[in-house]
Automatic annotation (TrEMBL):
The keyword Ligase does not apply. The chain crosses the membrane at residues 42-65, 85-109, 139-159, 179-206, 218-240, 260-284, 296-315, 321-337. It comes from Cohnella boryungensis. Keywords: Membrane, Transmembrane, Transmembrane helix. This is Membrane protein YkvI.
């Protein structure tokens, strides 16, 4: 039972790390899957297989290498010198992605809570800093709470969608987009999200160090991500093509289902952004700590300050500029990960340091 409990915790962190602003808003699901009509469900299945397979490999390899941060993994994949430069680039882009997450939290405050954008940034930064003082245990705890709520919301959405007369659209809607774009879509989606998730999957794999727990966690987490994608795709398909006009498609569905559900959605989208921000800042802090040996809490504060400054450009600008660039790098990373042979860890891995003073 203890193994299963740990495996479920690993799975919840995996899901919470992948799910962020784009997923919660419905924009990612629409862009990568729903717009391809009845092909969408098959594309989600392909992505799910990658999440299970590569997610397990990242954590198992991190445990085998006793990796302290994702730079150790990149050096193994790309070689010592190239791996260091890839890690430099990933550090910059991951910092940009975290700035997008923080900006997304600010937008939630300004658009849905009638508070200022800057208030949203500051509140989120402060909460993230306090939580990260407790290290990996805090990430495990917050995802244990947030991810089940998100799963419950998705299940409710599916039940409500079944009442829609167009609920079978996900099975019969035609694909009006290029087959090449559809074929590439699940690889881009899995590559982007898995490469971004390694900032926390690597230290998580090293901290757990047990192959059985990590494999079970990858299976549960990967299938959970696939189920959430299918739930979102199912709900969005029944409202196509009208729902495609919204910047936050899931917000349009939530408003349609009632005021109280809209508030539940607002809370969940903020928490999904927050869990991804917390996990990625943790991974970046470990990465910089390995390089500089500076105090982890000072590094966390510096990273959050940089995200705050970058967040002044706004959510939309950051999203459209940084995400395509990271997607190109991610495909190469996914190819190398798929070829690498991850071995079961032979001994208990040394856990990464707690982020405390």
């Amino acid at each position: 039972m203890k193994h299963w409990a740990k495996s479920i915790q690993v799975a919840l962190v995996f899901i919470g790390t992948v799910v962020g602003a784009g997923f919660a808003s419905g924009k990612e699901v629409l862009q990568f899957f729903t717009r391809f009509g009845h092909w969408g469900a098959y594309l989600i299945i392909i992505s799910t297989l990658f999440f299970v397979w590569i997610g397990a490999k990242v954590m198992l390899l991190a445990a085998e290498l006793k990796a302290r941060s994702y730079e150790d993994l990149n050096k193994h994949l790309f070689g010592e010198n190239t791996g260091r430069w890839v890690s430099h680039l990933m550090l910059i882009v991951l910092l940009g992605v975290n700035a997008v997450m923080l900006a997304g939290a600010g937008s939630v405050f300004s658009e849905h809570l009638n508070l200022s954008y800057q208030t949203g940034l500051l509140v989120t930064m402060f909460a993230c800093f306090l939580l990260l003082r407790k290290g990996m245990s805090a990430i495990l705890t917050i995802n244990t709470v947030v991810v089940p709520l998100m799963i419950g919301f998705s299940a409710f959405l599916v039940i409500e969608t079944l009442r829609n007369p167009l609920s079978d659209q996900w099975l019969r809607a035609p694909n009006a987009v290029s087959p090449w774009a559809a074929g590439l879509s699940p690889f881009l989606y899995a590559a982007f999200n898995l490469s971004m998730s390694q900032a926390v999957l690597v230290p998580l794999g090293a901290a757990i160090g047990d192959a059985r727990i990590l494999r079970k966690g990858a299976w549960i987490g990967g299938i959970g991500i696939g189920a959430l994608l299918l739930a979102g795709h199912f709900a969005l398909s029944s409202r196509m093509p009208g729902i495609a006009q919204f910047d936050i498609p899931m917000g349009g569905i939530a408003r349609e289902l009632g005021a109280w559900l809209h508030w539940v959605y607002v809370f969940l989208i903020f928490m999904e952004i927050f869990t991804t921000l917390v996990a990625d800042i943790y991974g970046l802090t470990l990465q910089l700590h390995e390089r500089t040996k500076a105090s982890p809490w000072m590094l966390t504060a510096a990273l959050l300050l940089l995200c705050f400054l970058a967040g002044q450009f706004g959510f939309g600008t950051l999203l459209s500029t940084l995400y395509p660039m990271f997607g190109l790098l991610s495909l190469g990373w996914l190819f190398l990960m798929s070829r690498d042979k991850a071995l079961p860890p032979s001994s208990e891995a040394k856990p990464p340091p707690r982020l405390s003073a």
